[in-house]
Design brief:
With 170 residues, the protein is of the alpha/beta class. It has one domain: Leucine Aminopeptidase, subunit E, domain 1 (3-Layer(aba) Sandwich). It is 42% helix and 18% strand. It has 5 helices and 6 strands. α3 runs parallel beside α4. The radius of gyration is 14 Å and the shape is globular. The two termini are 17 Å apart.
Length: 170
């Protein structure tokens, strides 16, 4: 697992993860950026799939992206932390890695799912993301590389701290 700062749409990996909405429709933030970079074929492919429940993931081709695939993971909207948000967010990472493994993909890059307009506390999200991804990697050996692609310095620092703490665990 490693942390990079930059534009997830420009990464040369097998799959990038879209912080998708439940309808898999083009949206704002990272979702909008991925749809713009991939081209209109991505929205058509998503429409054919239909929706996706919170915590689950679906896969489409990457179309005009460097990444061969886009894995769409629907994160939870933050409602204060007592509505299963932690488990739903962790499930996004686990299910995306499982889907990558099922499709023989070796590298996957994640944005900070649910930390934008969905309002999930970013530090809490970074810790959950790293822990869930680390556990999922142990179960899915085809996936060799997980990248947390952070848009800014603050997010990158949060993820680096979470990764350092995870690596110190017994």
């Amino acid at each position: 697992m490693k942390i990079v700062q930059g534009d997830i749409t420009r990464l040369d990996v097998d799959a990038i993860v879209n912080a998708a909405n439940g309808q898999l429709a083009p949206g704002g933030g990272v979702c909008g950026a991925i749809h713009r970079a991939a081209g209109s074929d991505l929205a058509e492919a998503c429409a054919k799939i239909g929706g996706c429940p919170t915590g689950e993931a679906r896969i489409t081709p990457g179309f005009d992206l460097k990444a061969r695939y886009v894995i769409h993971a629907v994160g939870p909207v933050w409602h204060g932390g007592d509505s299963g948000e932690d488990e739903a967010l962790a499930a996004c990472y686990r299910n995306a890695i499982a889907l990558a493994n099922e499709n023989g993909l070796r590298s996957i890059a994640f944005p900070a799912i649910s930390t934008g307009i969905y309002g999930f506390p970013p530090e809490r999200a970074a810790t959950l993301a790293v822990e869930a991804a680390g556990k999922a990697l142990a179960k899915h050996p085809k996936v060799e590389r997980v990248i947390f692609c952070c848009f800014d310095d603050v997010s990158a620092k949060r993820h680096r701290n979470a990764l350092a703490a995870y690596r110190k665990q017994p």
